[in-house]
Design a protein that fits this description.
Length: about 800
Amino acid sequence: MAWLKIALRHHRAGRLYTLLNLSGLAIGITVALLIGCWVQDELSFNTVHPNYDRIARVMDNQPADGGINTSNRVPVPLAAELRDHYGSDFTHVALYYPNFRHILTVDEKASRKSVAAVGSWVQPELPVMLNLPMLSGNRQTLTHRQNTIISRSLAHALFGAADPMGRTIRVDNNIDVTVGGVFADIPVGSSFHEVNIFLPWDKAVDEMPWMKDYTNAWDAPGFNIYVQLGEHADINRINRNIKGLMAAHTSNKAETIFLQPMRQWHLYDEFSNGVDAGGRIRIVRLFTGIGIFVLLLACINFMNLTTARSEKRAKEVGIRKTLGTPKASLVTQFLGEALLMTLAATILALGIAWLTLPFFNRLSGKTLSIPWTNAGFSALVLVFILLTALLAGSYPAFYLSRFKPVRVLKGDLRSGPLAALPRKILVVLQFSVSISLIIGTILVGRQIAFAKDRPVGYTRAGLINIGKNTKDLYDANYQALRDDLLRTGMVDNMAEAAVALTEGPDATIGDLSWEGADPHAKPAFSYLGVTADYGRTIGWQLAAGRDFDPALKTDTSAVIINESAATLIGFPQPIGRQLRLWGQPHTIIGVVRNLVMNSPFQNVPPGCYFLSSDKQVNDILLRIRPERSMHTALAAIETVFRKYNPESPFDYRFVDTDYAQKFAEEERVAALARTFTLLAIFISCLGLFGLAAYSAEQRTKEIGVRKILGSSVFQIWRLLTADILRLVAISCGIAIPLAGMFMRKWLTGYTYRIPIGWDVFLLSGGMALIIAIATVSYHAVRAACANPVRSLRNP
């Protein structure tokens, strides 16, 4: 244990450097640990389902506009085709109507209780495929068309502590179903975590005529199909076999389908021209790199501070080598010291990680935990300690043990510029990483701000969206409801649309043509059915022509297009020109500015707006009068909706809140990047602070002589900071092109993106220089202000 005593004595003698080393390593390990937990959570998404490695979804590729649109929306009859003709490849095939909020009502003693919950109409095989953990009943119960299964939290919300089994739930004031099972809430790490009720598909077909109409409609994509592959099925072979299924049943002979495995849904959800283009995996790789770099910075600190103070231990090495200590023993000594420091830093880091985990969870939007009792985690930490100690201690160990005892004891230890070269290289590497992180953080923040400031083509403030999620609202007279709402004096306007303002519609290939159009082209348009007051309600901006007029019956055969559509169609004067929509002539009466309804980071597709019956639209939009109190207005609006929808809760959403949610993920990424960048800079500054202290200590006599010869405080400060500033300048030269290249590639994931200007690089380099100057100035000024007599008198 002699090496341990020597190590402890050495650390006590240099408390400042020990503190700097310990702090830097602990922060680096904490960051790596938290990022590791985050990355593991991302990589394990959907593994909560035992069969996840054999579950896949059907994807559709449609050629459009010279490219390929990829979607997971497919027609209903495709499921039967897969089941009937390729059944040997699949254990299960299930249709799924995508999530939306349902109004669920139960009779509870003498009163009725209603809640809004997310649910889906699914075929019976889906709960079996997902292997839902059942608390009551069984997951096969959906084979009975009357039965449903609900989550534990929904069961508690509807029935409290009572047994929900066999109880009746009315869905959307229209369809009655019976509780046949209760499943444990699906964890957040699942693509189905929002679903609280799985409703029977056959019941929907029986009760809803439009669902029955889609049973054999190959030209009506809008549903999801999930499959579970057989035990020995090969997904690549299956993809080759089913590729042309859609082309055999539709007019689009170039349309293809393929299976995307469940393990890719979360991280590889973006496609370009029918090919996987990544997605969230870019963020995972980004933070993995940040974690590695931050830990590397901490290790560089350790190496720098240890080698910088090597002269303090040179005589110790010389004497021990003279007494016969072999080089291997010295290497073991210094690696042991590194191991001791890393062990202490890891213990400290685990404590810091445990304390900061709640903050990190709020920042990342996750519910991570440190798996203390997991044997794999313990083994990983042990390997982590050994590797970090080896990385951090290898250079000092071999550098110090290489000293020649004769030269060391004569005081002829190598010094000068070459002696400090390794440390300078490490400082350059350290600041190159820090500057790269600064550049990345600035560009991420600017990209988000750029998209937020993008003109959306309508006025979000004061708009609320109310889903028509009950039969009562579909049956309500549109004009009567509108008149009652306007009569409250709280509502400025009302309209209805097929989908919510911030939720689509997606661009699809439809039956649309015009004079001069390429007959072989298959342009993708977003089609939206609206009522006549839609434009005035949302405040869209007309670029040409006029809005829909409810007094003109001829407007039922009129359309309004957006600027993207006008550019694609190419009419010099589009107003009054004809389009053929679903085989019927429609007149263009207006052109509106592009409406940002889907991702604010992507271009707006060509859009076509037409009038629909109030029975064919699904969402109500209201604009609150700006002078009215929102609280008072909502109370008055709820009273009106109680009249038309008495058995259901008043369920509404603010459009500006929904739009802000589109930035939630990017803002979390930006917040995490800012936090880790600040920590990386802090670690770099710790090392720089220690090197500055050591440099000032080593040049104490030189500074004293210079002061006696008349040097000013500024001249001495400049002498001590000049080397550091040169190193930071070199770091800028390395970091700027590398970070610029990486960020240009990262920004290609956004169609609507910022240009990268030189101001970003100047700002990042300037920040690095200021941080470096501020860090070293304390010791530089302190040394410059010291009494030269005392400096020269001390040995």
